[in-house]
């Protein structure tokens, strides 16, 4: 089904064929636009060079043009339906997937969709003021691209709530606009989405580590037996890939510039030269990685086991796994602390699914570190960046009761606190990073703390006027 842009709400789900649903979504639309105006990007622009989805197939799904942001065509796009698709895991493995929500899973599915849906507008709120200090027009454009797509992801989840969960679903869709990131009275559901994104280093770390958690969560929902959810997530993952790119290459460029300044001035202390010292970058990695690990929940979870057995949520790349996809006979290892030592335990595989997903995520994160260390090597710098231990600085799960150093040593609370400033960004670090954040809006110019990108967007040069101001 092609995307119909003549409709008020662009879609490829034949919204016009379901008047009731169409009316319900059309009455949610002004609330969304109002939210975008008050909580979306704070910098006024005339138009931005954005990509818009035009088809969901393998080729040509994206179209690039200068668009006034409030006229962006947010809509409902699902990946194409595979009529033969069958449930790939759990106790109903092999049966046809569901086009409607089975009554017994209604509450659980709604909860999963609400939690995913809540993160989408949250990140737009967290990034609201970043445009005021963009290091280049290219970066400003990328920020806005991420923002409009997170807005669209909200649409994706709201469509499911409206189309399949009745009155309850519509109420949840309203609530998604009422909670706000960092709001004391009605915060967003997950901790990492109430943290600030006050500077661009945080933004790149967020898009690298926290958006990547999103990628893995979407990957599990893409496996869902509830086919509309699966198809929604499949298309969201395509958009998500760009967010990840912004994070990966953003950190690349900060690291490259820091290496350059270190060589030029023959010192690690590049702060006085307008750079971000490597130890500060390391602390930002430590922080964003550890809060993102918390998003995977407890290592052992009966909820996760039940979701899997019921077919609601699979594993990362479920169909590529070489086992029975039911897991009732399998076991897994989880790391934990016992008698003052880090050790591991064998537990039923079904209970350890959060740990399984987190393990996939961690090895993906490692690829970023490898990349950034290659940038350092090529930049002629001997220092290296690392991922801290999985138990470092955790608030959720088995490690949250313990004090573990980035290297993985178990220490007392006092020793941990005494070293906190060496491991996590201090007020002075944040103040320094913030002091570097000055907008550079001239085409082809770039701030001094970051290197320019190696390519522009959609084959345009870096000097292209990606954003026009009023
Ligand atoms: Fe998203
Ligand atoms: Fe994202």
From TrEMBL:
Entry keyword annotation includes Transmembrane helix: no
EC number: 1.14.13.208
UniProt signal peptide: none
Superkingdom per UniProt: Bacteria
An MF annotation (GO) of this entry: oxidoreductase activity
Keyword Iron: no
InterPro entries linked to this entry: Aromatic_CoA_ox/epox, Benzoyl_CoA_Oase_BoxB, Ferritin-like_SF, RNR-like
Record keywords: Oxidoreductase
PANTHER family: 1,2-PHENYLACETYL-COA EPOXIDASE, SUBUNIT C, PHENYLACETIC ACID DEGRADATION PROTEIN PAA
Name the record gives this protein: Benzoyl-CoA 2,3-epoxidase subunit BoxB
Origin species: Pseudonocardia alaniniphila
Lineage per the UniProt record: Bacteria, Bacillati, Actinomycetota, Actinomycetes, Pseudonocardiales
